[in-house]
Structures are given as C-alpha cells and as structure tokens.
What does this fold into?
Amino acid sequence: MKFNVTRRQLQKFLIITVILFLFSVMLNYLIMPWYVAAPEVQVPKVTGMNQMQAMQILEENDLEGLIGDTTFDSRLKTGYIVIQKPQAGDIVKEGRRVYLVVNGGSPKARVPDLKGKSVVDAKFALERVGLKLGDTIFAPSQTPKDIIISQEFVSNTELRKGQTVNVTVSSGAEKGTLTIPDLIGKSLTEAETILAALKLRVGKINYQPSFQLLPNTIIDHYPTAGMKASEGDFVDLFVTKLVDIKEESERW
It folds into this structure.
C-alpha cells in the first residue's frame, strides 16, 4: 500500500517535531532544574494571629497569603486566622500560596424547610437552630389556611444566629377562585365526592323522574360548570329518580 505525502504535509510534520523536541529540551534543562533548585522554606504558624500579622509573616518567609473562606470560632476574635493550609511546619517552595480561613465573628445556622408547617411549628424549628421567626404575611392560596406556603430564605441557607426569617402563610382560598366542575352525567355519589374535594357543599337536591337515565344521575346543577365559587359555597343538584308508574298514570 502506498501513502502519498505532499511536500506541505511533510514540512508541517517536521515543524511539529522540532517544536516538541525544543519544548522537551527546555523542560528537562531549564524548567525542571529551576523548579527543583528553587529554595524551600518552612511554613510558619499564623493561626491565632490577625490577618495583617499573618500576611506580613508569610511575606517575610517568601510565601503568599490568600484568604480563602470564613468560619466561626468562639475562642478567637473577628478577623483572626482559624485554619491555614499548608500547615505550620510543612516544607514548601518559595512563593507557595498559603490559604487562610478567617474567623467571621458570628455563629452560623442553616435555615430549615418551613413550607407546609404551621406558624407554631415553624417558630419552634427556627428556634432549635438559633434563628427567629420574622414577619408573617398572609396570602390567598389553595393550601389549607394557616399553613406556610413560602419563606424568605430557601432551606439550607446559612444565616447568622439570631437572624429573623419572614414567611408567607395561606389565608385560604380567595373568594371566587374555585371553578365549578361539570357534574352532569355523573352519579350523585361521584358529584358529592368531587364537591367535597373542592371544599364545596351539596345544596338542595331536586329529584326529577326519568325514563332514560339511571336513578341518582345528575342532569343539571347550579351554579353551572365554569362559574366561580368560594370554599363552603353550596351547589344545588338536579337528580333523576325512578318513575312511579302509578303516579304517572294518575297524572294522565
């Protein structure tokens, strides 16, 4: 099998080969010797010091201090170093970064999930982790009344202990927000179940004789399907019943 290699492809291959060779030479004879020969220093202890002192001592030892995070330690004042990495006594190259964790000055608490709880339960849940219940705002909702539907901070948010968390509480369904379902053709039992699920009540039941439909079938209702209602409103039903042959014959 023959391979056709153009002059341009050959030149490109040679250039790449030369570049890789030169990089290998630089790595072996310049970069690595410089890195290996770089002076080493012992990391000083800076925990328990304030930020300014810690940075100054690290700089004097040819190291670079970098504030990485904050935490809380009751034994130290705000702004003092709690943790350092690498640790004191470690041997590192000059110029190495030393990551510092600083005391934030106040303890933290994670916000619990309050949605679905009552206001009383939410208050206890917050107090258990060192937080307080803030403002309680009421808003209409399909959620049962007096149940929390939203909270100011999502669960697991870190806050300072003693901080307040505002919540929004359901005041129940807003008047006129429920839609009357279509009950025509359903049995009386089915209609009662559907209305109960929507927190509506069965009103007056008007029985109408029918030869065509089974007894206890809904043939009409008021309010009609699509109309608005509120929790606890009544829905009047028009329901079929067995035809009394004797009664009908007497009427005729």
About this structure: The domain at 108-170 is CATH 3.30.10.20 (Trypsin Inhibitor V; Chain A). Helices lie at 7-37, 51-60, 119-128, 188-197, 245-251. The two ends are 108 Å apart (CA to CA). The chain has a mean pLDDT of 87.
